[in-house]
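Ticket 4471: requesting a sanity check on a complex prediction with adenosine-2'-5'-diphosphate. Repro inputs:
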Amino acid sequence: ASPVVAIVGATGAVGVELLKCLEARGFPLGALRLLASARSAGRTLPFRGRDIVIEELTEASFAGVDLALFSAGSGISKRYAPIAVAAGAVVVDNSSAFRMDPAVPLVVPEVNGAALAQHRGILANPNCVAAIATVALAPLHRAHPIRRLSLATYQAASGAGAAAMEELRASTAAYLRGEPYAPTVLPHPYAFNLFSHNADIDPASGYNGEELKVVAETRRILDAPGLPIGITCVRVPVLRAHAMAINIEFDAVVTPEEARERLAAAPGLRLVDDRSANHFPMPSEASGRDEVLVGRIRTDIGDPSGRTLALFVVGDQLLKGAALNAVQIAEALRA
Ligand code: A2P
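Returned structure tokens:
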């Protein structure tokens, strides 16, 4: 029988994309329950030509639910995911609540789909940068073990939720009218600006929480514990696609030609690497697309040994970085 599915956080930036992914991919549904805060209860969201009424999330919400897709922040996940599991549901959680729990698989289906089988009720959907980066890293890592990684990210507003996307739109419009704008969602002016990711800084290392998540989760997804990873995460005024410059040091020389061939053949990726046209991955072309775009593949001239490659990767933060990956996990569970 088709599963009864609940979306927790259905009104959020990711929640709305979860609905679209379920619809676009024809996911089999016995019923669909939309859950959010009391603020949204009674409103409706369209799905497959009908309007579905949003209900307030409560401890009783999961009776009869087979699959619960959570995207309402880690506090809500910590509190309600165990309740959903106790009610008999399998949870795919988009928050960071369980990602480093050894009993919870952290899954990018193209990369480590085999880990799915070990779940005990909860599966974690990775941080958006880790999910997008590992789609491009895994095909290379499988052929030649990665020895060290260095990343710089250019992250979209969507990672901070629907309100941050609205703040980018509103502050840009105010800027163009020459009016002042006081940010309320993000800590710094966003229009025509960029800033170091707003996650809290870890005083010991000086790295922010986003950077530390990407390091830990990338190691876990690639099954490369202890892999040295350096990273700087930055928010840029883009609505919904994350970009990243990645330098990858291998054990041996890997030519750009070989990397290009492996990446072109890998699932979930699309090569955008046209040197003659200076055309490489861009947020404008990754937004709304399932595939992660990869290009600018070249030997890093900063490493004279020739064992380091540089590439540029862009993926839709709300799709492969969140909703699409969660639905792919749900599809893989059914299969
Ligand atoms: P609501 O719209 O009712 O506030 P985003 O990541 O875009 O900020 O979205 C967060 C999602 O989490 C929204 O769907 C939001 O619902 C939901 N949410 C936030 N707080 C709660 C809560 N206490 N109970 C249920 N859902 C919540």
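Notes from triage: Residues 9-13, 15, 36-37, 39-40, 57, 72-73, 76, 161-163 surround adenosine-2'-5'-diphosphate (CB under 6 Å). Leaving this open until the requester confirms.
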